[in-house]
Fold these 2 entries.
Entry 1:
Amino acid sequence: MTDQLPPNRRSPAARALTAPAAEGRFVLQHCNVCGTVQYPPQEFCTGCLSLDLGWKDTSRDGQLVAEAEIHHSLEPAFGPDLPMRTGLVRHESGVTLVAFLDDTCRVGAGVRLELALDRGGAAIVKASVR
Ligand SMILES: [Zn+2]
């Protein structure tokens, strides 16, 4: 076990995911004007450029479209977790999220997403088989 914390670089918009993650909720940023779901979190809507964005509890369902097993990291904090699996999950809203995968996730499978806090207290996305 390392005493180093995982990278904690997050945009101000992405830091808004911390509280919902701590509460066990799954939220995504939505535009209050056109409804476009934003991921990663944005300062303005990628659909209509509105600044009127908000957070909504959202479906946790997606499909794993790519996976990678990481055996080496330049981040010392990840050392004890290697090898670890990450992947791209296409959420049913159409956005694609980077997620940490459990051992059962395979490309093409339906997955359930969750927000969690890493050892440093930053929000991360995890996926497991539905
Ligand atoms: Zn919009």
Note: Residues 31, 33-34, 36, 45, 47-48, 50 surround zinc ion (CB under 6 Å).
Entry 2:
Amino acid sequence: MHIEVDSHTHTIASGHAYSSLGENVAAAATQGIKLLAITEHGPAMPGSPHIWFFKNMRVIPRIMDGVGILRGIEANIINGKGELDVDDSLYPYLDIVLASLHEPVIEPSTKTIHTDTVIKAMSSRKIDVFAHGGNPIFPIDVDEIAKAAKAYNVLVEINNSSFTTSRPGSEKNCTSLAEAVGRHGGELTFGSDAHIACNVGRFVECIAFVERIGFPEKQILSTSSHSFMNFLQEKGKQNLEILLAQRTPSR
Ligand SMILES: [Zn+2]
Ligand SMILES: [Zn+2]
């Protein structure tokens, strides 16, 4: 299995990551990544960049070292209404919006409340990816989440860092979440959640995980940059012409 898209990465701009954009892109090129999403934390996370950072991502070339660049954000779900820390004026500048539950931003509660909160965020139609949903700090009803993800055309992320340095104990929940996505006909994406260049495009644990549970490769969107671009286009993302022009089917 080869992964062409890394849908979740951070640079030094996130405040607690350690590599530059150029270093991340070079690492992505080395790993054979064709599409790299730059997804710094949204403003509710301490140390995250100012809104101008996100609006000014248009200065980043669309293609660097042969790698297509997606201008993204890892938004925070900030309350039980499923609202995000993304100003409405920012969406036209973004190619991809991840939504996450983070302890410094929203207090862990009950499984029912987490599930309801995430489904409300999905139903807003503002998000493209639900990130690191296997976090045991924020248990969710995996069937309800998988059904909503399918209904609202949201990708469910399997986060490589959840198997290495972050969110210990995620694997069991990732298994039940991925299996639910498989049952309900949704799609996964892989995010390295790299906070340093050497982890960009590195999916050793994600690949071993899906092989172990027998998850169908055709339901992993990040195996194809072509399919990933089609997904973004279907979701109405603008200003993707240069990336769309270079897409070539690989599966
Ligand atoms: Zn996160
Ligand atoms: Zn992240």
Note: The mean pLDDT is 95.
